[in-house]
# Entry
Amino acid sequence: MTEQQEALTKPGAERRSRGGLEGVDLWWRAANYLSAGQIYLRDNPLLRRPLEPADVKARLLGHWGTTPGLNFVYAHLNRVIAETGQDFLFITGPGHGGPANVANAWLEGTYSEIYTHVGQDEVGMRALFKQFSYPGGVPSHAAPETPGSINEGGELGYSLAHAFGAVFDNPELVAACVIGDGEAETAALAGSWHSSSFLNPAVDGAVLPILHLNGYKIANPTVLARMPEEQLAALLAGYGYEPHFVTVADPRDTARAHEEFARALETCLAGIHRIQYEVRSAGGGRPAGEGAPIWPMIVLRSPKGWTGPETVDGKPVEGTWRAHQVPLSEVRTNRAHLEQLEQWLQSYRPEELFDGTGRLRPEIAALAPAGDRRMSATPYANGGRLLQDLVLPGYGDFAVVVKEPGTERVSPMANLGGWLREIIRLNPHTFRLFGPDETASNRLQAVYEATDKVWQQRIEDVDEHLARAGRVMEVLSENLCQGWLEGYLLTGRHGVFNCYEAFVHIVDSMFNQHAKWLQVHRELPWRQPVASLNYLLSSHVWQQDHNGFSHQDPGFIDHVMNKKPEVVRVYLPPDANTLLAVAEHCLTSRDYVNVVVCGKQPSLTWLAPEDARNHAERGIGVWEFAGSERPGEEPDVVLACAGDVPTTEAVAAARILRRQLPQLKVRLVNVVDLMRLHDAREHPHGLEHRDFDRLFTTDKPIIFAYHGYPWLIHRLTYRRTNHDNLHVRGYIEEGTTTTPFDMAMMNRIDRFQLAIDVIDRVPSLGSAQTGLRQRLQDMRMRARRHTREFGEDPAEIADWSL
# Structure
């Protein structure tokens, strides 16, 4: 057991006697003063003269209600860090408690180190106050701009998942996660309690959940705060936690509150280190028949808006929903409110906290941990400082040999699984694979040759690939997979989230938050680049023959494309080798969200290894082997495709046209990187107009077979010269439990329909090819009848090759 762990197991009273809790209270008061000042003041930060309306912001924005509780917890954690050297990451779930995070970062000195214009004196305090929720300033919630934060406070529910993701493979870290009782009502947070079933004490750090019950949301009471304590204790125990309750019965008896919370915090930390010590000293193993360890946690009941105004205009505020945002809302126009604000701020006795220049008094400043031990300065909250490049296996060692294009079938996902297996072997502490019970379903099961699925509950003889340690994280919650991965990436590691394409929509909102985080993160020079968030989507819309309509939705791509082009990328590799090349690129990238969509079923391999790598790097290109254009001549028509199934259908259509209309010059263009269709002025990967025109011509018909909803292609290309000649086929919400080719026919992207589209749009064909057009229609009908009679696609289609 380390010295720090031994220190945490000593009796609390003995340890507290070395410094007492007076310093904690001083820090708390200072943080509360700075927090209230941020919400209200634009001038006169130290109240050197009576407050005037001009000292107060015109627009009062922010959330006071949760803030003093956050400051209270932060002050106590700082004491433990200073005494023991324990590494802590502070994660705030109560979304808009941003004043607390900023106030504590300023008190610790980190804020002024990063933002030098916000110094640690009166001038700096004025800047600190004025910038908060102010035009051109900082947000009212924890955000990328906030030192020490990895959890965006704009949307609730993700804090606990982020905390667990942060401590995976960080054995010395404790993530103190404050969970708001409003946040606790969200589906994402409710599912996150299960995370302890995946936390391995041998190699992971620990999460200390602190459920902060202050009773109210914006306008309503919260479920857990009104739940009888016996019932709440049973609920948390059922989730696998040992709750320690701290109740602030008398808001004015702060000494008792400090004492009770300090005792609970010490007890919990001792419990955490005891679990870790027992497992680690036993070599990391636990009997298969045991359940997961029971981890300690704290339930803190404190009044909403604690230490703020008790009443306003004769109505109770402290301890009610009225304290949620701005307790005194008419300060500039109501003299009584202005006077009450001054009394509130003076109640913290700022003259005891700050010297004549506005600096924090030295004896209080000395209470902060040193250097990177400060929670606002910890490298765990700026994960790029800890990030190490992945060691990747050779691309050529896993690329598929292609003798002739389109002749051999390989499962792209199964082939990728072998490559991921080696990544896991080469990076045993910095890479994990996340997924909602679909790793094997998505054909990535080769990874189990190198690792197992993490599982801390009972393991039975019938179970396969379950172990206390492993690099695969499977839980039937897309929210948890996303949250864990975000926490893992933002603290300096790498990972992949594999999922069914239709159900990744469950994390639409979580993706939004992460993309917005990355957008701001990239603009902050002190934030170091982190590994990209990589979605690997399979079991996609075109091959759901046993699941049906509910599993057929390619719309996540459309959702992703709404975000800033600097942070999102979408790839549709057409075969195994291109998927491998795209995956290699994504796992070496930084500060992006990469979406990769590819099928899992055996499919034709089109490109030899080197050609696939070049094609992936270009992102778009002409496939001369598939078309029939002649060197030096413009094509009569362009067949374009993006996605594995659309590519097969487009190549098959081109082959039909080559045989039936040998005089017709067909160009086939395949798109891997969907962003290449963007205008170069709108996306870094976009094509210049001249380059787009070279590929698609300026006046010839374009028939585009696309993986997703067809209107996205129009949206990306509407400014192009030849857009009026563009006709897109894609998913049009026609689906059922049926064969892959019948799905293509239902949505009219099949080879016969694409060939018909060419006949309809090439002026030189038209009525001259009415007979061929009719034969193609007959082929569609025969294929449809075959599926209905035999339950499978015709052999000439199912086994078709180039």
In short: The longest strand covers residues 173-180. The domain at 395-603 is CATH 3.40.50.970 (Rossmann fold). The first helix runs from residue 3 to 8.
